[in-house]
Amino acid sequence: MPRATPPQARPGAPAGTPVATPAAAPAPAPAAKAANPNLPPLVGPAYVKGPACANPSALGVSRTVLIDTSGGPGFGFEHFKQHDFLKPGEVVLTFDDGPWLGNTPAVLRALEQECVKAIFFSIGKHATYYPDIIKQVYEAGHSVGSHTWSHVDLSKKTPDEQKEEIEKGISAVKAAIGQPIAPFFRFPQLKHPADAVAYLGDRNVAIFSTDLDSFDFRIKKPDQIVKRVMDKLAKHGKGIILMHDFQHGTAQATPMLLAELKKGGYKVVHMVGANGLQSMAQYDAMIAKNEKLPTAGAGRPTSSVVRTIDQ
Ligand SMILES: [Zn+2]
């Protein structure tokens, strides 16, 4: 059986670029099956390093791990019994459902203050509402993955509908940040229909569940959110934490949570995709159509443009 298309060579980056290219390209994973020629290959890289840390006593990122997403690995032991790579005391911060006005920038400021990096799973529609905000997330050095186009429960959709939700989500986030996005995906409500899981595997996208669900969308009170996460951490010792930058309570809780993590001696691990995820042209076109573009005659009243002449 022929190998899957190996990851493409990284474009030669001039010295001093903010791209955190590892010293050596990762070895391609053994291919389980031939790559689907109808799906775009991964390209690299999918993240930038972000600005230097300005806070000498910051929590900081203890290590950055490069994820080869060939074949669609699963992370988060709530659903996937794979890849136990975190050491005791290590956490990965993840934020879903943004970008959102006010809350996402507040989360960003808190992360910047402590010089930590996270994964953001953006809803495609929200990325079209606030493209500048999700672009700021990307430029700050966080991994920006996707979380479907409109946050529907994919287990209630046909395989074609699942594909459209996934791809439009990818296209929308890509259009907002202007780069291939991180090859990371989280299912709405952590519902994992088999067809969609298989499709993401063909697409070489990693699927994220969680180890520590904050239930912040239900708790809402910042101090209670922090307590919930820290109690779970005390029990499990490490893990991928699920929160929502969409939620006001989470925006308020994030600085407190980071302070508690620092106090507790926990370490933040940053997960980055070894390669970026390309969008597909047909879904890019759907997103472009979705955006309401200005036209030369935009100032005219509708009554002068549209008149009923026969009824
Ligand atoms: Zn969600």
TrEMBL record:
<dbReference type="Pfam" id="PF01522">
    <property type="entry name" value="Polysacc_deac_1"/>
</dbReference>
<dbReference type="InterPro" id="IPR050248">
    <property type="entry name" value="Polysacc_deacetylase_ArnD"/>
</dbReference>
<feature type="compositionally biased region" description="Low complexity">
    <location>
        <begin position="11"/>
        <end position="32"/>
    </location>
</feature>
<keyword id="KW-0479">Metal-binding</keyword>
<comment type="similarity">
    <text>Belongs to the polysaccharide deacetylase family.</text>
</comment>
<protein>
    <recommendedName>
        <fullName>Chitooligosaccharide deacetylase</fullName>
    </recommendedName>
</protein>
<keyword id="KW-0378">Hydrolase</keyword>
<feature type="region of interest" description="Disordered">
    <location>
        <begin position="1"/>
        <end position="32"/>
    </location>
</feature>
<dbReference type="InterPro" id="IPR002509">
    <property type="entry name" value="NODB_dom"/>
</dbReference>
<feature type="domain" description="NodB homology">
    <location>
        <begin position="89"/>
        <end position="269"/>
    </location>
</feature>
<dbReference type="InterPro" id="IPR011330">
    <property type="entry name" value="Glyco_hydro/deAcase_b/a-brl"/>
</dbReference>
<comment type="function">
    <text>Is involved in generating a small heat-stable compound (Nod), an acylated oligomer of N-acetylglucosamine, that stimulates mitosis in various plant protoplasts.</text>
</comment>
